[in-house]
Amino acid sequence: MTNNFNKLNDFLGTHLIYTYDNGWEYEMYVKNENTIDYRIHGGMVAGRWVRDQEVNIVRLTDGVFKITWTEPTGTDVALDFLPNEGIMHGTIFFPKWVEEHPEITVTYQNDHIELMKESREKYDTYPKLVVPEFAKISYVANAGQNNEDVVSEKPYDGILEEIRNGSYFNENYKRNNK
Ligand SMILES: C=Cc1ccc(O)cc1
C-alpha cells in the first residue's frame, strides 16, 4: 500500500477500492475538492453507482481525510480515509425507506434524481439504519482530478479484478475498452 499521503492535494484525484468488515465492497473516486464518483459492488445496495455527488472533503491531519455528504435519497454518509495505513472507517445513516426498498436505489442514480426525491417523501425516514464499519483498502491509485473515465459505466462482475490487475485503465488512466 502506498504510504505517501500527507496534504489534501495528495488525496484529490485518488481512486480507491475497499471492503468493509461486514463484507460490503465499495469503490470511490475523489474527483476534486468537492465532488466524488462511486460504485457499490457488494452489500445492501450493490449495483448502485453515482457520479458528481457534491461532498465536503477535509484533511484532519497528515494523511487522514474525511468526506461527508447527504444524498438525494436522504442517506447521510461520513467516511474517514487513512490511505497510508490501508484502512478507512465509514458510517452510513440510511433512512428507513432505503432499508425497506433498497432496489429503488440500485441504479445509475444520476438518471433518477427525481425518483429518489419522491421516494424519500413517500416512504418512512425513521428509524434510521446506522452502519458504522472499518474497511480494508485493497486498491489505491492516482487517477488525476476530474477524470471522467474512472467511474463511467455500470458495475459488472469482474470489473474490480480488471482494475486491480491493471487491464482496465491505460497509462494515462483512461478506460481501455470504450
Ligand atoms: C451511500 C454511499 C456510500 C458511498 C461510499 C461509502 O464508502 C459508503 C457509502
From TrEMBL:
GO terms for molecular function: carboxy-lyase activity. Coiled coil: none annotated. It comes from the Bacteria. Pfam families: PA_decarbox. InterPro entries: Calycin, PA_de_COase. The active site is at Y26 (proton donor), E71 (proton acceptor). This is Phenolic acid decarboxylase. It comes from Mammaliicoccus vitulinus.
